[in-house]
């Protein structure tokens, strides 16, 4: 299915006028969260996989390519082929997966987000 | 202005919520069977829950002029124990005679386990045997994409027309595949972990308004029983037409649900 273009009834200026303050606040929330992490002493376990995934997702925001939400959700998705028999003893969902490092230093989910 | 909230767990909501929903234009709700926040200790607990859904809740809704319909199943979380789940599933056929039951739901996967999938497929078979509509729950976070694909594979292995199946809790990375495979798609508007009214309006702009609806999935957690009227306002302030707003919050639910002879708004 192709993504329709110019389907928002507002022009760019109107979109900014409607949503700028709301998303300015959300951006500041993310910045505050990163600052909070800086103030938190490191734990012995090293960087949490969720923090790594979030840093990777933030790059998508600035790469000027379309479908940012879908690509971030795909980055945060589990592509493992295994199906456990039972959920017994499994932890709750965490919202991210452990990203594996590839030779060029790019992080990926270790699957094909197609 | 009228709307339908096609996925909300009213057993977890107060009567005040019915009142506020009615004041906001809600004319009908459909309530899938779900996890109560704790595992029931016996199949009898489900029999009582099914009675609440089919007998008590329609009466409570009617006090505010809201039509109440329901879906029955064992939810994916408690389906992870197949022996227990089969006992619950065996209770369902007698409740399918109730005049407000629309189908089997919300079935699906929770942790994407083999046990959950076994019971999912047995409940798909139950829906097929009794010619019922199907409402599908998909996992919420990193499990969603994998779970949605597994569920669609199980559904396509049955003989149920995908046009009689709604896959709920879609997000931007799953909605395209769900629609491409012929299913209906539901967007759940939730304050924290799911889609916002803004993103739901975005999805309509990207994927169109065919075979798609939105719901609050209001339940015992942080959720908003007025999420659908809020999404209507969001679409309106963005400049979408009243016809489009009505299509996704009233006409589309009516079209899908009317495939069940039990769904009547009059
Ligand atoms: Zn639900």
Sum this structure up briefly.
The complex is a heterodimer of chains A (114) and B (266). Chain A has 114 residues and is mainly α. Chain A has three helices and two strands, in the order H-H-H-E-E.
Describe it for me?
The complex is a heterodimer of chains A (114) and B (266). With 114 residues, chain A is mainly α. Chain A folds into two domains: 10-40; 43-78 and 95-114, no CATH class. Chain A is 43% helix and 4% strand. In chain A, strand 1 and strand 2 form a beta hairpin. In chain A, helix 2 (49-61) packs antiparallel against helix 3. Chain A is extended and about 50 Å long. Residues 102-114 of chain A have low confidence and may be disordered. With 266 residues, chain B is α/β, with parallel strands linked by helices. Helix content of chain B is 43%, strand content 15%. Chain B contains ten helices and eight strands. Chain B has helices at 15-23, 43-62, 82-89, 92-95, 114-129, 144-156, 175-180, 197-207, 227-237, 242-257, and strands at residues 3-5, 26-32, 67-72, 101-108, 133-137, 165-167, 184-188, 212-215. Chains A and B meet through helix 1 and helix 3 of A and helix 5, helix 6, helix 7 and helix 8 of B. The structure holds zinc ion. Zinc ion (ZN) is lined by residues 7, 9, 32, 34, 106, 217 of chain B.
């Amino acid at each position: 299915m192709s993504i329709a273009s110019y389907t928002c009834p507002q022009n760019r200026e109107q979109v900014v006028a409607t949503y700028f303050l709301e998303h300015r606040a959300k951006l500041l929330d993310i910045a505050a969260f990163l600052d909070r992490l800086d103030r938190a002493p490191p734990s012995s376990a090293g960087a949490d996989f969720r923090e790594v995934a979030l840093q990777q997702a933030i790059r998508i925001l600035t790469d000027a390519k379309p479908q940012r939400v879908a690509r971030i959700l795909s980055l945060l998705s589990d592509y493992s082929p295994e199906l456990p028999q039972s959920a017994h003893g499994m932890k709750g969902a965490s919202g991210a997966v452990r990203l594996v490092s590839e030779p060029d230093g790019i992080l990926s989910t270790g699957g094909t987000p197609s | 202005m009228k709307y339908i909230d096609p996925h909300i767990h009213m057993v977890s909501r107060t009567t005040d919520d019915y009142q506020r929903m009615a004041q906001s234009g809600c004319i009908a709700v459909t309530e899938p069977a779900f996890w109560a926040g704790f595992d029931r200790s016996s199949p009898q607990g489900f029999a009582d829950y099914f009675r609440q859904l089919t007998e008590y809740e329609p009466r409570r809704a009617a006090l505010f002029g809201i039509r109440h319909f329901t879906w029955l199943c064992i939810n994916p979380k408690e389906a992870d124990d197949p022996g227990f789940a089969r006992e619950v599933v065996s209770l369902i056929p007698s409740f399918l005679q109730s005049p407000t039951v629309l189908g089997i739901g919300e079935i699906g996967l929770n942790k994407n386990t083999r046990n959950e999938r076994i019971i999912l497929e047995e409940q798909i078979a139950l829906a097929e045997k009794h010619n019922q509509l199907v409402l599908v729950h998909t996992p919420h976070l990193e499990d969603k994409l994998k779970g949605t694909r597994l569920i669609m594979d199980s559904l396509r292995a049955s003989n149920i027309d995908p046009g009689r199946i709604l896959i709920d809790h879609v997000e931007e990375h799953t909605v395209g595949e769900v629609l491409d495979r012929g299913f209906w798609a539901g967007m759940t508007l939730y304050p924290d972990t799911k889609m916002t009214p803004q993103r739901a309006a975005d999805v309509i702009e990207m994927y169109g308004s065919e075979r798609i609806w939105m719901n609050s999935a209001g339940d015992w957690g942080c959720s908003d029983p007025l999420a659908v009227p809020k999404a209507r306002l969001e679409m309106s302030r963005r400049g979408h037409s009243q016809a489009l707003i009505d299509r996704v919050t009233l006409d589309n639910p009516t079209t899908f649900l009317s495939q069940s002879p039990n769904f009547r708004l009059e």
